[in-house]
Specification:
4 helices, mainly alpha
Length: about 90
Amino acid sequence: MGTDEMNLRAGKVMEEWDPFSIGGDKYSEQITGVLAQLQLLDDPSSLAKNIQSIYQIAYGIWIPLEKCVAVSYKLLALKFEAKSII
């Protein structure tokens, strides 16, 4: 799996996550921000904190870190698969 396919699959994961139940297609800017962080980070906690921050800044609503950690593990699994780490 290449980077483009990883980004498509990661974007799909984020759309399905839909933390505020408003429809996954409403988060395009936030998903872009998360995908940019995914390229830079390999630590699930760091990625989760960035996800939490990105969504909180955009919507003014705090998401529990545990929920962000859960999705960060899914995203990092895709990243590691794309890089043939697993």
